[in-house]
Specification:
Blueprint lengths: L1 H25 L12 H22 L12 H25 L27 H16 L3 H29 L1 H9 L8
Helix pairs in contact: 1-2, 1-3, 2-4, 2-5, 3-4, 4-5, 5-6
Length: about 190
């Protein structure tokens, strides 16, 4: 039961990403911006995310891999909740960002500062969604490679967030500084 749910949800993640990219191609919208960190690390971060998603797929297909321990049912249920929450954040932030969704720094003047909706709880709800998804992968399959990929992806994406915030501060000035005083990088509980 859990495996089939994980499989369906992981396929949904891939379909969401394909839909975003496909929509951008159809609209001739630029979806890849200038990497905020050196290109090698930017690509490495995306590859590490793919490792975690591969482990989710293996869980969904019930492919047995080495794990440090076998997670009890309650941990798998927590992992499932993290996966659902992460996908929900990812989906809703994708909808909210709409044309402003870009991987990297935008060179366009048409992008606007997002501060409402999900962005009133987190400065990076898209990344936060992925963090929950990747964490769920580690909870489902506590494999050393999976855990290392998660920690590496999170660390690199943390630096990406910092660089994006510096870019936004340069772009929007005081408006962005005021926003950062109200909303935390990861999660603001009101």
């Amino acid at each position: 039961m859990i495996e089939s749910t994980v499989l369906i949800l992981t396929i949904l993640i891939f379909l969401l990403v394909m839909a975003v990219v496909g929509r951008a191609v159809i609209r001739k919208q630029k979806i890849i911006g200038r990497p905020p960190i050196p290109v090698f690390y930017f690509i490495l971060a995306k590859m590490l995310v793919m490792v975690n998603l591969a482990f989710l797929l293996m869980k969904g297909f019930d492919i047995s891999v080495y794990t440090i321990l076998t997670p009890p049912l309650y941990i798998e249920l927590i992992a499932l909740a993290f996966l659902l929450f992460g996908i929900t954040l990812l989906f809703l932030s994708t909808i909210q960002l709409n044309k402003d969704l870009i991987f990297g720094l935008s060179s366009s003047e048409t992008h606007r500062l997002q501060t409402k909706g999900l962005f009133s709880f987190s400065r990076h709800p898209f990344y936060l969604g992925f963090i929950f998804i990747l964490c769920s992968s580690c909870l489902f399959t506590p494999n050393p490679v999976n855990i290392a990929a998660f920690l590496g992806a999170w660390l690199i994406h943390h630096f990406i967030m910092i660089k994006e915030e510096q870019f936004l501060e340069n772009q929007y000035g005081e408006e962005y500084r005021q926003y950062t005083k109200k909303v935390k990088r990861y999660l603001t509980l009101k």
